[in-house]
Amino acid sequence: MSVSQQQVTEPDLDLVIIGAGFAGLAMLNRARELGLRSRVYEAGDGVGGTWYWNRYPGARTDSECYYYCFSFSEEIVREWTWSERYPGQPEMLRYFDFVADRFDLRRDIRFGTRIISAAFDEASGNWEVVTDGGERVRTSYVVTGLGLLSAPHLPDFPGLESFEGDWYMTSRWPQDGADLVGKRVGIIGTGATGVQAIPLIAQEAAHLTVFQRTPNYVVPAQNRPMEPDEIVELKAKHYEILQKARDHSFAMPFNPGHGPASGVSPEERQRIYEEGWASGGFRFLFETFDDLLVDSESNESAAEFIRSKIRETVHDPEIADLLSPRGYPYGGKRPPAGHDYYEAYNRENITLVDVSSAPIQEITPGGIRAGDTEYEFDVIVFATGFDAVTGALTGIDIRGRDGFELKRKWEDGPRTYLGLTAHGFPNLFTISGPGSPFANLPVCIEKNVEWIGNAIDHARREGIDTIEATREAEDDWVAQVQDVVSGTLLTQGEAVHSWFTGANIPGKAHVVNVWFGGANNYFAICDGVAEKGYEGLALSSRDRGQEAESAAAS
Fold it and tell me: According to the model, what pLDDT value does residue 501 have?
């Protein structure tokens, strides 16, 4: 019997979308524009994704509000007004609620529903998606919008089950908050989350003990309220700003730096760093000098400037020294934007423990034993990060052709084409998947959504049933992801132990899992692939019983 004569079961939906954060909502809106029967499945009880789950004290964006937002609608830009330069989690959640209500998105979202498996059925060419409630849905396409940093990681600390107090993960903070007032609190982790949480927790706790393995380079965000005149100007220039962000290597509407750091006098270099410090956040990294991520001497000049600011800010020289990063370049780990972070260590109710010299041995009934010392706590907070990039995807039982598991495919490191598709997994698209840029995510997400929507639209118009990366295109992209980072400082020294390389997860393959070749270059590559008839993708039609691959991939 030929393919065209086989009994083919019609799908229940054209598209299943997993996750209701930036990616899921943008994809749902695009799917509606294309007339696709679509449904979003979201494990939480509301929209927001990262901003739904991360409710810890101090949670806020580290990109500025006017480019950390949706751009697909002029109405959203016109009708929503931000209150702060870096919005906090409550404001971000209100923003997502506003967008969902403004476009009536909730009617196509199943909340409180987790996808546990998705399997490609060769006979029908559809995916069967199964929820934790037992629902089975057949769909032509699956698009994941799970986020780079959404699968929490809790290290296997011996004795945790014996702890007699309360413990919390920052990434799963109670919706009603946690009572920390007047309590002895220990927090493990000084990454981007810990840097935000520590100053706020210190204000509530009777005493806060911070367990730090590797100090971070923290530049102050310089947060402030948005001025009315500023808001009017930014709204008027929104699409100009968006284009500027799409032309930037990290998808931010920043100006170029002042050339190489070695190209100016020491006095001028100091002045530029001071100016960058006053601007705050990522502007210090990208608008001071252009070679901080590729030249070790330039990077060290920026690193030493930050260390000098730590020494100026923190009164106790020994604490300042413990907080001063060494052994890896500035930018080699995700550089957090701080909100009175270093100032917090001048409080009398805060203690810093260096676990690189006194490792955590166990959680005890009364607290934490690090080195030879036991610290007593009423509450322990774990700011221990995420199984980044791949964790949320491999947490679902995803099976492609011949039942092959995605988790198994990625055992030696993630393999995708453009971070969007994977060979052996037809009609599965991953928004901000492994091998996509680590940059300002809303801009990257919307470009991914445009590309995926256009690819699906092309397939439907041309009578194409399946879209799948070729093995050759995937191999080439995996090699490029590893190659582009070799010209940077991002895998030198202690930086190799960051989540950029998966090294924070025991047993995880130690490879670079995001694209560091520039978001702007990535966008151009993706656009070029589409313009060449979806180069590198096998496009097949079941009805015609033939496979028509793009000319360049054949």
Answer: 85
Ranges of residues in the chain with a pLDDT under 70 are 1-9, 493-497, 543-554
What are residue 467's phi and psi, to 5 degrees?
Answer: -120, 125
CA 147 to mean position of chain CA atoms: 5
Tell me the CA distances in angstroms from 20 to 102, 115, 136, 212, one per residue in order.
Answer: 15, 13, 19, 33
Distances in whole angstroms, Cα of residue 513 to Cα of each of 416, 434, 435, 486? 10, 6, 6, 13
Using CA atoms, how far apart are residues 378 and 543, in angstroms rounded to an integer? 65
pLDDT for res 510: 86
- At 12, give phi and psi (nearest 5°): -75, -35
pLDDT at 494: 57
Contact of 148 with 515, CB cutoff 8 Å: no
pTM for this structure? 0.94
All residues at 6 or more sequence positions from 234 whose CB lies less than 8 Å from its CB, including other chains: 66, 241
CATH 3.50.50.60 domain span(s) along the chain: 3-47+105-151+388-467+512-549
Nearest of 213, 211, 189, 218 to residue 339 by alpha carbon: 218
Helix extents (H) in 17-169: 22-33, 50-53, 74-79, 89-102
Q: What is the pLDDT, as a whole number, of residue 500?
A: 81
Identify the CATH number of the domain defined by range 3-47+105-151+388-467+512-549: 3.50.50.60
